[in-house]
Amino acid sequence: QITLKESGPPLVKPTQTLTLTCTFSGFSLSTSEVAVGWIRQPPGKALEWLALIYWDDDKRYSPSLKSRLTITKDTSKNQVVLTMTNMDPVDTATYYCAHRQLADAFDIWGQGTMVTVSS
Amino acid sequence: QSALTQPASVSGSPGQSITISCTGTSSDVGSYNLVSWYQQHPGKAPKLMIYEVSKWPSGVSNRFSGSKSGNTASLTISGLQAEDEADYYCCSYADSSTLVFGGGTKLTVL
User: Fold this and answer.
1) How far apart, in whole angstroms, are the C-alpha atoms of residue A20 and residue A63?
2) pLDDT attached to residue A103
3) What residues in chain B have per-residue pLDDT under 70?
4) Which of A65, A80, B43, B52 could pair with A22 as two cysteines, CB 3.0-4.6 Å apart?
5) What does the pLDDT read at residue B1?
6) Cβ contacts (< 8 Å) between B25 and chain A: which residues?
7) Which one of A40, A49, A114 would you mutate to disrupt binding with B, by most B Cβ within 10 Å of its Cβ?
8) Whether pLDDT at A119 is above 80
9) Among B12, B18, B13, B9, CA closest to B78
10) What does residue A36 show for φ and ψ, rounded to 5 degrees?
């Protein structure tokens, strides 16, 4: 059974760097074709894809946020970490991590973690 | 990379069928058969309903079906049920191995 869980600070100040951790079980990020992604959703708004990391350490980022995002993995800990620099109130959102299946769809999602950006 | 275009809202009565469109470009929907659809109930994480345009994940009702023509993908829900009331999002693989979501559609079951 695949599960994922996001963790991170519920509140960050503007200009700070956000670090979120996705801890997963039921699969290994060292297995071929496996990938984990991050998606966010501002309150009352649409989903927005942020980043994806593959089993071979290939990484993909949203073009509009690429300069601010870094995604990494720790295979031994079954974790994926997303950092976002220069946080702004518009980045207030629920941040989800999700398991990507072969057809580039996210079949299993974490419960999400709400992050508020405010001074 | 702009968000895919979905109608803000659709509605239907129990038992009826509805279709939600998802319009992209030749850089995403039009070039790849990698469109997925997600259902999201309030306060919950999204749930995968359709992948690769028209395939069902295990456990998803076949009342949900997907299709694509040109730059537009569609999700059809037949035999509407009260539990289908939710937000629905499309997502497409896009150039440069990126992904793009739609703006979401709120489905109301009358």
Assistant:
1) 20
2) 82
3) none
4) A80
5) 77
6) none
7) A49
8) yes
9) B18
10) -130, 135
